[in-house]
Amino acid sequence: QVHLVESGGGLVQAGGSLRLSCAVSGIIFSISGMGWYRQAPGKQREMVARISSGGSTFYADSVKGRFTISRDNTKNTMYLQMNSLKPEDTAVYYCNSVDGRNTRSYWGQGTQVTVSS
Description:
mainly beta
């Protein structure tokens, strides 16, 4: 069974930082593509950042230069370092994995990030 568990969300003032983690089990993490998505109230879920099994990264324009996605294959964990946070970054952040063996997609339960102005 596949499990993705996010942690690290919380309340922070504008300009502050948070680090999200996503611990993964049930898939071969090292060959799986990973990503962070977010969904704000009343809006569709959107891609924030993705990282391939080989470490290539891709960011939404809205977070470029402020967020950094990374992965530690020895810990089966993905991270999102979020700096210079803005109120518009407020959302539930979800971890996503695409199994490298069969391209099935899995989601975590989400973690709330709230940025106050």
